[in-house]
Write a structure and sequence with these properties.
280 residues; nine-stranded mixed beta sheet; alpha+beta
């Protein structure tokens, strides 16, 4: 058997379990909105899910850390038991953006539990919706696609009557001085109430972060710098009324710090939300 054909057969053997999972995929909630040449919907087929996982792989692995995964799929155990909000460019029929949505209505577990102890979050009354794996094709990264994702998200939130949105918000740095600056700023301005705090699991804890933060001086200077260090998506969450649930988790694979972020729908900044969702 020629080498190329042999490698193809081996690939097919190993990808078969993934293919079976993808073929069985069905959405929990179906939504579909057409707007300005795009369709915002939940993935409905194994083919749509596979294309979504390939987009995530391109963004999170190839682009961010220069790494290739087997079969070019960014896939974990949650992907076939949750919903995937996707944006389709009607001109090319390509998926150009996505958000992974894990609802407490359909899942007792969440991705964030790999990094954080979520016991206090899970005890909160009401439907909880975890947002994750948000990414957009680099050719489409503009304000328009972000608004489209939020438009679809708003529809999904209304359909499941979500009370809380939460998830990991990444800060792409492992510079501990920068993280200390951000952490102190967040503690001063954006922390949750104590009863909904979380702690990173042991594997993800930043050693001595409290002492590093407490040694910072000139807080007003650091505060101005910190605001510039916070990435756009997290800034949007905070402006919408989100809060940070505690110290960050250190994700060594992606060389970033993850903050557990939570938003009570009743405490949202309605003016900003109106702009994002196109209602004002």
């Amino acid at each position: 058997m020629p080498q190329i054909q042999k490698e193809h057969v081996i690939d097919e053997i190993f990808i078969k379990p993934y293919r079976m999972l993808l073929d069985k995929f069905k959405p929990k909630i179906k939504i579909s909105i057409e707007r300005d040449g795009y369709i915002i919907k939940t993935a409905e087929t194994g083919e749509e899910l596979e294309e979504t996982l390939r987009l995530r792989h391109d963004v999170f692995y190839r682009e961010l850390i220069g790494k290739e995964l087997p079969f070019g799929l960014d896939m974990d155990r949650f992907d076939t038991r949750c919903d995937h909000l996707i944006i389709i460019d009607c001109k090319t029929d390509n998926i150009v953006g996505t958000y992974r949505l894990i609802s407490s209505t359909f899942s007792p577990d969440f991705y964030s539990e790999e990094e954080f102890d979520l016991d206090d979050i899970k005890l909160l009354d009401g439907v909880k919706l975890e947002l994750g794996r948000a990414c957009i094709d680099k050719k489409y990264r503009n304000g328009k696609t972000i608004v489209l994702l939020w438009l679809g998200l708003n529809e999904y939130i209304n359909r499941i009557h979500a009370k809380y949105l939460f998830g990991c918000s990444s800060v792409q740095t492992v510079d501990f001085k920068k993280i200390a600056v951000i952490q102190r700023y967040i503690q001063e301005h954006h922390y949750t109430q104590p009863h909904i705090r979380v702690k990173p699991n042991n594997k993800y804890r930043v050693k001595d972060i409290s002492s590093i933060v407490s040694n910072l001086d000139q807080l007003s200077v650091f505060g101005k710098k910190a605001a510039r260090l916070i990435p756009g998506l997290l800034s949007t969450y905070l402006a919408a009324g989100a809060r940070i649930c505690g110290e960050p988790a250190y994700d060594r694979e992606f060389k970033c710090m993850d903050y557990l972020t939570i938003l009570d729908m009743e405490a949202m900044n309605q003016r900003l939300v109106g702009k994002l969702f196109g209602t004002c």
